[in-house]
């Protein structure tokens, strides 16, 4: 008799999406992340403080942002950020630029509370985990967006 492909416990574990912006690795609830799209072409700065436009989008129906390793919007999209997703509301015209986007089963993650000495005021990060020999930070899309744009450069 073959073993089942998933156990009830594994099936009920939350699913995450790993999004990577260079060295920054975030684990977001899968329900917070929209469909990943391939970005073909360079983006241009809109306002110099983190909003970007795709010059090929004649209607300017989408805006883009790229996070730094400190979770602040960059004035330009770095090379290698060729995947985009929305965060939170599916109808949001803001697309975030990533190096990597992939689903991670919750059973592969053991969240740990960030020690108080390492917490920054107003940071969306309160938990972390070790995944594939890298530290990943758990948070939700709303807090990432709020933090990023509360600290625009």
Structural class: mainly beta
The figure for the number of domains is 1
Helix content: under 10%
Order of helices and strands: HEEEEEEEEEEEEH
Strand order of the largest sheet: 9-1-2-12-11-10
Computed Rg: 17 Å
Separation, N- and C-terminal Cα atoms: 60 Å
Please indicate the percent range of residues in DSSP E strands (runs of 2 or more). Answer: 25-35%
Shape descriptor reads globular
Would you tell me the overall average pLDDT? 87
User: How does the major sheet shape up?
Assistant: 6 strands, mixed
How many strand segments? 12
Please describe the structure with a list of short key phrases separated by commas or semicolons.
single chain; 153 residues; mainly beta; four-stranded mixed beta sheet; 2 helices; globular; disordered N terminus
Task: Please give a structural write-up.
This protein is mostly beta strands. The chain has one domain (8-150). 10% of the residues lie in helices and 31% in strands. The protein is built from 2 helices and 12 strands. The chain has helices at residues 8-12, 141-150; strands at 15-21, 24-29, 37-38, 44-45, 52-53, 63-65, 83-85, 94-98, 100-105, 112-113, 127-131, 134-138. Strand 1 and strand 2 form a beta hairpin. The longest helix has 10 residues, at 141-150. The radius of gyration is 17 Å and the shape is globular. Residues 1-10 have low confidence and may be disordered.
